[in-house]
Amino acid sequence: MDFNDNREEAALRARVRAWIAENAAEYEGLPPAKTPEEYVARQRGWQKKKYGGGYAGITWPKKFGGQGRAPMEAIIFSQEESRSAAPTGLYDIGLGMCIPTVFTHGSPDVIQRFVRRALEGDEIWCQLFSEPSAGSDLAGIRAKAVRDGTDWIVNGQKVWTTNAHLCDYGIIITRTDAGAPKHKGLTMFIVDMHAEGVECRPLKQMSGASDFNEVFFDDVRIPDAWRLGAEGEGWQVALTTLMNERLAVGGKPRNSPDWSMLMRVAAITETARGPAVHQADVRERIAQAYINDRGVALTQQRALSALSQGKTPGPEQSIAKLVVARQMQEISRFALDLSESAGFLTGEDGSDLARLQDSYFWAAGLRIAGGTDEILRNIIAERVLGLPGDLRPPKDTPFNEVQPL
């Protein structure tokens, strides 16, 4: 495992750091956006700067408007960007998951229409996969698409769709043949989020934010030209999206708490037995947080080393995502417990307390997004440890005949 940049990577990091320092200076010290319109405007402005500077779509093929460069270059840019005040997040799903699926499985006309506009920041995308009745079983979705001439008519519901209320387009997986086995009767489409019959309902979260949505489709027409992949082959198309999703959501979220934040809170917290940081049980929790943080960092460094050497990281990356989400929740909960009544008061923007509160509320969702803890444990057990597979229905059973286990 290599912990250091090689000469070329170090030179690239210096150039990226200088570019970001110059171009993100206007965002330093800005308060959080007060309206959705302001939030979108900031994010769009930064995306357009990245596109103009040659830092958008770093790994994408040049024929799709990308830079055609190595994954390590994208990682270096992302690392430096995360250390700045640049507004990020809104385009992560679209450019990290949706558009790579579009240019992998879309027709030439579809690619020409959508890809570059998304990369330039003109159009924002979401992923419409999860459903209330399917849970983590993506192949169990029930949203239905029926062929009508050169169009498809879609009816159904999706849920936990991040930023759907702010998006222009999305990719949606539907069931087009209920008589086929559950993995065979699926088809993927592009959908206009402003089309007649599409209704987004933001879900109120514990934090007061509304990042997630439930989305309803009532006789929504989608042209067959917007189909991604062959009819009935939506599962194979979805695997492209899911593979990119693991890269997009598998890392540590920006500004998430770590062991050092827990240390700072413990150092300023007085208890009946003196400073909390002097107590053995508190020190034990800090030590465990440090061990977990280092374990995640080393696992991710292993993946970076593989990418730097032109190799592909393995399924052990699921370990990092599993630990990161739980770690966020545990650190935040323990720190807020230490703070006693102060933990219930809204912290000032940017303070440790505010970051801990945000982390505590968000961590529960992170343990679902991009694969639940249970799904990740199955991946680790089956693909890393080689344990027997989980009990599943026979793969050749028609979907409309599948019985609950």
Any overview of this molecule?
The protein is of the alpha+beta class and 405 residues long. It folds into three domains: 7-88, no CATH class; 125-237, Butyryl-CoA Dehydrogenase, subunit A, domain 2; 250-384, Butyryl-CoA Dehydrogenase, subunit A, domain 3 (Up-down Bundle), CATH 1.20.140.10. It is 44% helix and 13% strand. It contains eleven helices and ten strands. It has helices at 7-23, 36-53, 71-82, 92-105, 108-120, 234-249, 259-268, 280-308, 317-338, 352-366, 373-384; strands at 125-128, 144-148, 151-159, 169-175, 186-192, 198-202, 213-223, 227-228, 270-271, 274-275. The strands form three sheets. The chain has a four-stranded mixed β-sheet with strand order 1-4-5-8. Strands 2-3-7-6 form a four-stranded antiparallel β-sheet, with no helix packed on it. The two termini are 43 Å apart.
Compose a concise summary of this entry.
With 405 residues, this protein is α+β, with helices and mostly antiparallel strands.
